[in-house]
């Protein structure tokens, strides 16, 4: 096969996502009516096409070995595309109810997903930086999509400012790594251990720590999650986390091949980040009365669990199991968190901005008595909360089980114990939502609006995915193991 054709096929998911964004933008230019339902259909169609296109990939390196299309990147791309499709369906109902549906929303989501997909392929710090910026610029714009209102403006400004700060740190770290290794390829890092390389890698990890909202780089997450439109929050919580952990995994596997003491020091830094993130993410979620902010802190806590898998990647014997557990966890978390935010969106008011929503738009009180008023919606939310808590028979339970098992296998006992204990702590605030839905009477007689068909469909698909992945995890688990066993890094 011609080398150029192989490169095009390897990059086909990214190409299709970018093409989809351009098509949606052009459709907005030539719009002859106010109806935009076809735009969400286009977004879902291009997402599905990008996900299926990984089957055509020849599995080769591109950009002079600066990126690779392998089984790992294929799994990441499919997960991102699934999250994009669900978020687009959620956005269709949410935006239409507020008269905010525009082609820019779907185009930015497609461009952001293209950056995420490329980030999952990156094996070089420069390509990773470019992909991060493509992803970040799209999500910055989506966070400010409502344009008017104090909360959206504050969320967008805070996200942009701290995001730019983290990108600067990442780029400075890349410069130091290049100075030490004379290359920015991940594969070249093991040949240049030393203090300069250690300093550069620490800064790179800090830059990625902002993206995954690891403690102490998490301060932007609660305000941004609350102020951004709920479909954007769902897309950020899933897609950004999947892409950032994909590149972090590739980087840390290369880092763990560096000779001591650099390897041991980096191992300790990431372990400390995992402990802090699990503990403070769950602790700060406990007093939250806003379900949206609670889910933001929950996202931080789940970043901590994923960091446990990243640490376990440093144990060569446990590496394939840790990688497969991480991939399974990312897939299950994507379905769960988008479904949870979809239920939150269904219960929100009809304000055109976050400031026009009711004061208690995301308060726990809105969930009181939901089991009687909207039984299907309450059942779906209960499934998502139980999954996030890690209770069987949901996907969240299997994901946590796989990660903690590999931590024990890799003899990272402290992280495994911390993960189990903080999961028990997290069960309190997740199950509190279930208690409100089924054991609390509504505080006032309020007629809840019926969710749009698009939101209802997104909730149903996400809930079905969570249960299927939990009851019959073998197909995805086997796929993740096969990907981990054949990953080219």
Protein model, in words:
- The structure is a single chain.
- This protein is mainly alpha-helical and about 500 residues long.
- It has one domain.
- About 75% of the residues lie in helices and about 0% in strands.
- It has 19 helices and two strands.
- Strands 1-2 form a two-stranded antiparallel sheet.
- The radius of gyration is 21 Å and the shape is globular.
Show unreliable segments.
351-356
Q: State the distance separating the first and last CA atoms.
A: 24 Å
Radius of gyration, rounded?
21 Å
Helix content: over 70%
Order of helices and strands: HHHEEHHHHHHHHHHHHHHHH
User: Beta-sheet strand percentage?
Assistant: under 5%
What would the principal axes of the Cα set say about the shape? globular
Mind summarizing the main beta sheet? 2 strands, antiparallel
Number of helices: 19
Question: What does the average pLDDT come to?
Answer: 88
Main sheet: which strands, in order across?
A: 1-2
Structural class: mainly alpha
Number of domains: 1
Q: Strand tally, please?
A: 2
Short description:
With 489 residues, this protein is mainly alpha-helical. It has 19 helices and 2 strands.
Topology (SSEs and partners):
Blueprint: H1 3-10, H2 12-29, H3 37-52, E1 61-62, E2 67-68, H4 71-97, H5 103-121, H6 125-143, H7 150-181, H8 195-212, H9 221-227, H10 230-255, H11 262-285, H12 291-312, H13 319-347, H14 370-373, H15 375-389, H16 395-409, H17 413-439, H18 453-471, H19 474-486
Antiparallel strand pairs: 1-2
